[in-house]
Write the structure tokens for this entry.
Amino acid sequence: MILAALAGAACVFGFAPYYAWPVPMLALVVPFLAWSRAQSARRAFAAGYAFGLGFFLAGVSWIYVALHDFGEMPAILAAIAVLLFCAFLSLFPALAGWATARFAANPGWRLVLAPAAYTLAEMLRGWIFTGFPWLAIGASQVPSSPLAGAVPVVGMYGVSLAACFAASLGAIALRRESKVRTRSAMVIAIALLFGVGAGLRFVQWTQPSGPAILVALLQGNVAQELKWRDEERVRTLEDYREMIAAARARVVVLPETALPASFDALPPDYVQGLREIAKRDGKDIVLGVIERERSGSAMAYYNSVVTLTADKPAFYRKRHLVPFGEFIPPGFGWVFAVLKIPMGDLARGAERQGALTADGTAFGVAICYEDLFGREVIDALPAARILLNVTNDAWYGHSLAADQHLQASQVRALEAGRWMLRATNTGVTAAIDERGEVVSRLPQYTKATLVADAQPLMGMTPYARCGDLLALGIAAAIALLAAWRGRAFDALRESH
């Protein structure tokens, strides 16, 4: 159990900022071997749970910073909340372990079922209760692993399946019962798996759809604890106006909720001044701002992106909200009495909103957490020529969160075959090409502007056409085959 927990914790080194992509595959060998040898489904569940607890406590404990440092939750309550959250997330690898031992009695077939079970559990984690797909194993393979070549075909979860299979093949090779011939076959199979992924990296799934455009990504570096204070608002507005005016680009993008006021409450002369800058310099301005709209006697607030040009502004409203950060699930209203998070109960935008146009180019927009969901990002395709994420990871301080979020954007760029541009408050502001590579980035916690020469692209990757269905189908088929053959093999052995 201790070894499984340590292996889970080690998995974190496979993700940004470390990018040691072989580590998660090596770490998964531990729970997979434990599942293959488990005397009962309960023991396999426990081994999976220990792995998950080590993984998530090491990987997402930065949630404590948002709850305590900025949400002002008492330290003990914040620690308990993080522990309970990680305990919940650990149920998914535990469920995979239970299913592996429960539905395949034969150890060999368990090691066929384990990768599919883990991937299916990971997909469930990315969907249930609005989903939390953070630290999916497939994301760790982007951008450097040979398996990253398969991301445009089967998406992040398909690469999770491939990485888990590499781990399972390694586990088969390490079994005491395995002969030299079996071990050699497993090494060859791993090499073939990596070879296919490496070969797919040479496929150009999308093509340029016009000349590159200059986009300026502003990083205001506004301290989260000061952002919403009345005395800071004027300075923040003036700083961003100066940065917009100084930016030498066709499109200027501000981070999520960069302007600390709702759009309709901004000073009229301020908005008009931005319009005049846009008209004078021939640039389009894309703002991250809170938008409000009256519905009967109630006021609805949206986390929005606004394209501000000389003409009528266009809006994108965030549709995938963060539980407890942007909306309170039913029955948890008491959380408001503990957390002090501004704009903590927002309204959802429409499911289908299309792309926003700036400088004649269609941008597929995702606000903050939304770019964790590949199936939603591809909704803007094929119209969107460039992907855009505006975010504010200042909530998580100097932790792993911002770099892990950057890696999620790298995955989305690969899945869609598009450039991904990120404008953030404190970092990581970056430009990512269609191969998932970071072309340029700003240092965190600095006030600066990143100007990127972004290439609009057209065309559809296989993932953009099918979404997660292909990965789901493959994983489900393997799971059913392994469960059937594992049971059939055991029944045959007992009959003799």
